[in-house]
Structures
1.
Amino acid sequence: MNVFDRTINIDALFRFSQISHSTQVHLKNVYSSLAVCMFVAAAGSYVHVVTRLLQGGVLSVLGSLAMMFWLAMTPHNPETEKKRLGILAAFAFLTGVGLGPTLDFVIAVNPSIILTAFLGTSVIFICFTLSALYAKRRSYLFLGGTLMSGLSILFLMSLMNLFFGSVMLFK
């Protein structure tokens, strides 16, 4: 079945009924593969910045584009599922290596930006993942991730305010 031959049901966007078990299993698979990609991309960045085994540049960009096209051209069926996950991990790794020159520049400015960005991304991703996995109704999918991200930011700001004592953060 071609992607462009499918019909799109607009009414499905406005239905806030229960989420089927198969949809929850699909969401679990999607979010777990995205989590794996996030950590593999971080490993690729680590390889560039710390070990200098692979240098990010034109070859890593071309390699990640090749992996993306190979993934798009590989048919999705149960026999090729592990192969597709490996291609996706290679894409994420090469993308992480490609981020290396940018990370070198950020390290020159302030190295704590990298840790802050990674932890912030991880916290927001975890909030959206938990919202998608535990929501029984579709309406919670729209609100759950945003509310959990806001709650996490408020919690982290109040925790930071214990050490800094900022009046502006308190108010």
Note: The chain has a mean pLDDT of 81.
2.
Amino acid sequence: FQYLKRFDQGCNLDTFHYKAHSVEGNPAQCLQQFLLHCGITDPSWSELRNFTWFLNVQLRDCEASVFCNPDFVQDTLHGF
């Protein structure tokens, strides 16, 4: 949710890192973001769960990768 919210606001996601147990927004805002970005017109709960699980895994791996660390790559992969 936090990444999607910042993406919609046009924030630089290269420097954002999720902080465990941090809470932003409310459940209705969270659901609205997922519905907006999941790519399915009328998703089931299972489809939303799969979307959020996949997105979470990808973002966690991205944050852990040295190749996605702006301090390491500097400006060589801007916008990647």
Note: Residues 45-64 form the longest helix (20 residues).
3.
Amino acid sequence: MGYDIERFVGYVNEGLLCSICRDVLEDPLQAPCEHAFCTACIHGWLVHHSNCPEDRQMIDVSLLRPLYRYMKNDLNRLQLHCKNREYGCEMVCSLESIDRHERECEYSQIPCSNAGCTVQIERRNLDSHLAVCEYRSRECPNGCGYTILSAEDTQHNCVAELRTELELLRSEMICRVEEAKHEMESRLDSQRRHMVQKESILQNEIEELKSQMSRMMSDVRSLMAAERQHRQELEQAELEKREL
């Protein structure tokens, strides 16, 4: 949507009006047929149509271009009232600088910065509102360190608040201890399973070594028996040789 034409001072050229909303162009774009539109207006139009709302020529989003420079300059020089005129602001400035002014305007309606407060207040009156806002907060004057709202002044009890805080801290500590305990138990279980697995592997390796040792001893005994047999055969052959 464009800027309300009623806000402008003096004559506004017809070429500076949006062809859709008929207000003064805001963030303007121009079609190849040279009709100009607010960006929001033409994008909304092209969702349901594929032509220019003025002359019905076919257009596409990709064909839209920024406004001619001379038209943009004419647009920026237009003078208009601040949108907060109804609240008392009498500022009249160029369209080019109106956004900057309205962001800082003392008559702008802004929300109270205190959490929970729904009051909308003029920027110039914000400080005076904050001084009396029922949602304003401050630190307990008795030194307990608790932040209280003004509305809670009469209900605030330092001992009760500190006791509540202590209970919360105790509960948090218990939870952390339980979490640490569970984590340690989980780690111990994991290490225990790992050690059992390791022990099983080592036991299997020992059994395999024993089996290999047994086979080696059997082979050694076989070799020794073969050697004795061979020696006896040699001795027998030697005896036969002598007899011959």
Note: The first strand starts at residue 28 and ends at 30.
